[in-house]
Design goal:
Largest sheet: none
Mean pLDDT: 95
Length: 79
Protein backbone atom coordinates (compact mmCIF):
# COMPACT_ATOMS: atom_id res chain seq x y z
CA UNK A 1 0.00 0.00 0.00
CA UNK A 2 1.34 3.42 -0.90
CA UNK A 3 1.81 5.58 2.16
CA UNK A 4 1.99 9.35 2.57
CA UNK A 5 5.76 8.95 2.95
CA UNK A 6 5.88 7.13 -0.41
CA UNK A 7 4.06 10.05 -2.02
CA UNK A 8 6.48 12.52 -0.43
CA UNK A 9 9.37 10.45 -1.77
CA UNK A 10 7.87 10.37 -5.28
CA UNK A 11 7.43 14.15 -5.30
CA UNK A 12 10.91 14.69 -3.83
CA UNK A 13 12.48 12.46 -6.46
CA UNK A 14 10.58 14.27 -9.21
CA UNK A 15 11.85 17.64 -7.99
CA UNK A 16 15.40 16.30 -7.73
CA UNK A 17 15.22 14.80 -11.24
CA UNK A 18 13.96 18.07 -12.71
CA UNK A 19 16.76 20.00 -10.97
CA UNK A 20 19.30 17.50 -12.26
CA UNK A 21 17.94 17.81 -15.81
CA UNK A 22 18.16 21.61 -15.59
CA UNK A 23 21.81 21.36 -14.57
CA UNK A 24 22.49 18.95 -17.41
CA UNK A 25 20.80 21.22 -19.97
CA UNK A 26 22.86 24.18 -18.74
CA UNK A 27 26.19 22.34 -18.86
CA UNK A 28 26.10 20.00 -21.85
CA UNK A 29 25.54 20.39 -25.59
CA UNK A 30 21.86 19.94 -26.54
CA UNK A 31 22.24 16.50 -28.15
CA UNK A 32 24.09 15.04 -25.17
CA UNK A 33 21.80 16.78 -22.68
CA UNK A 34 18.73 15.34 -24.42
CA UNK A 35 20.07 11.80 -24.17
CA UNK A 36 21.01 12.24 -20.52
CA UNK A 37 17.61 13.73 -19.67
CA UNK A 38 15.86 10.92 -21.54
CA UNK A 39 17.82 8.42 -19.44
CA UNK A 40 16.68 10.16 -16.23
CA UNK A 41 13.07 10.11 -17.45
CA UNK A 42 13.36 6.44 -18.39
CA UNK A 43 14.70 5.57 -14.97
CA UNK A 44 11.83 7.46 -13.33
CA UNK A 45 9.26 5.59 -15.44
CA UNK A 46 10.90 2.27 -14.58
CA UNK A 47 10.74 3.05 -10.86
CA UNK A 48 7.05 3.95 -11.12
CA UNK A 49 6.35 0.76 -13.06
CA UNK A 50 8.17 -1.33 -10.44
CA UNK A 51 6.12 0.33 -7.69
CA UNK A 52 2.94 -0.42 -9.63
CA UNK A 53 3.94 -4.08 -9.97
CA UNK A 54 4.69 -4.34 -6.24
CA UNK A 55 1.33 -2.81 -5.40
CA UNK A 56 -0.47 -5.14 -7.82
CA UNK A 57 1.32 -8.20 -6.42
CA UNK A 58 0.40 -7.18 -2.89
CA UNK A 59 -3.23 -6.70 -3.92
CA UNK A 60 -3.28 -10.05 -5.72
CA UNK A 61 -1.86 -11.87 -2.70
CA UNK A 62 -4.50 -10.29 -0.48
CA UNK A 63 -7.22 -11.39 -2.90
CA UNK A 64 -5.90 -14.95 -2.86
CA UNK A 65 -5.76 -14.99 0.95
CA UNK A 66 -9.34 -13.76 1.17
CA UNK A 67 -10.55 -16.36 -1.33
CA UNK A 68 -8.79 -19.12 0.58
CA UNK A 69 -10.32 -17.92 3.87
CA UNK A 70 -13.79 -18.02 2.32
CA UNK A 71 -13.18 -21.52 0.90
CA UNK A 72 -11.90 -22.76 4.25
CA UNK A 73 -14.91 -21.29 6.05
CA UNK A 74 -17.35 -22.85 3.58
CA UNK A 75 -15.64 -26.26 3.80
CA UNK A 76 -15.77 -26.24 7.59
CA UNK A 77 -19.28 -24.86 7.79
CA UNK A 78 -20.80 -27.35 5.35
CA UNK A 79 -18.82 -30.39 6.48
Amino acid sequence: MITIQDLYNIVGNKIANEAQKTLIRNNFPPQIAEQMCNAIDGQERAEHFQRLLREYNEWLLNQQRQQEAVRRFLREYYH
